[in-house]
Amino acid sequence: MKPKNSCLLGLSFFVISYILFSQGSRLEYFQKPVDFAHWFNLVGAILLISFNKVFPKNNLNTVASFVTTLGVIAHIGLCTIDFIMWSFGNNEMAKTALSNQISNTPSILYPFVIIGPSLLFVGLAAHALNFIKTHTISSLMVIIGAPLVGFSFFVLKNGNLMLLSCAVFALGLVLLLNANENSTIV
Predict the structure, then answer these.
(1) What is the pTM of this model?
(2) For 159-180, what is each residue's pLDDT tens digit?
(3) Residue 105 — left, alpha, or beta (φ > 0 → left; ψ -120 to 50 → alpha)?
(4) What is the DSSP string of 54-101?
(5) Using H for helix, E for strand and C for coil, what is the string for 143-162?
(6) Rounded to whole angstroms, how far apart are CA atoms 35 and 33?
(7) Pick from 107, 115, 175: which is nearest to 140 by CA?
(8) Which residues lie below 8 Å from residue 22, measured CB to CB, with a gap of 6+?
(9) What crossing angle do the helices spanning 36-48 and 59-87 adopt, rounded to 10°?
(10) In this structure, what is the dihedral angle of CA atoms 84, 85, 86, 87, given to the nearest 10 degrees?
């Protein structure tokens, strides 16, 4: 599969996962018989690593690629934790015990729950910086949308705003991907 197609498929899966996440308590419906939200998120995140191949090669790209890769690794870890949590079903005591164990283990908590998953958004926003002069609006959609996804979910606890932020972020990436298809972007 061509890297551009992997990027588009990854963005599609990623946005679908955020549509499911934005459902809040209704998400439970989408977790039977499989945790669809986290599967879409996991596959989407893995495919988003393809952005490292499609953007212009320069020093910023090198840093952005490294950060994006760390973010993908962290998403894999976070989804693994969420799959284990999901496997407990209605056993709230087991979920609480796992949650407490993770909270008391900084070597898991920070890289896979608190900081790591955000690196995917930071890395892709850093990639977008390459286009700030030539495709300002698309770049700003990515750069502003990235932190708004986390802010709307973790601070404002607003699933609809989180979904809107993710859609703006993804649309900005799609526009950047297609902006220079025949010139700077391979």
Answers:
(1) 0.89
(2) 889 999 999 999 999 999 998 5
(3) beta
(4) HSPPSHHHHHHHHHHHHHHHHHHHHHHHHHHHHHTTT-HHHHHHHHHH
(5) HHHHHHHHHHHHHCCCHHHH
(6) 7
(7) 175
(8) 159, 160, 162, 163
(9) 160
(10) 50
Tokens representing 79?
A: 């989804």
Coil, strand or helix: which one is 164? helix
Specify whether the CB–CB gap between 134 and 175 falls below 8 A: no
What would the pLDDT profile of 70-124 be if each residue is shown by its tens digit?
999 999 999 999 999 989 988 999 999 999 999 999 999 999 999 999 999 999 9
CA-based nearest residue to 49, from 124, 154, 103 = 124
* CA geometry: angle 88, 90, 93, nearest 5 deg: 70
End-to-end CA distance of the chain: 14
Tokens of 126: 């850093």
Q: Mind listing the pLDDT tens digit for each residue in 26-41?
A: 656 556 778 888 999 9
Rounded Cα distance between 131 and 92, Å, is 47
Residues 184, 56: Cα–Cα separation, whole Å: 6
- d(CA 71, CA 3) in angstroms, rounded, equals 18
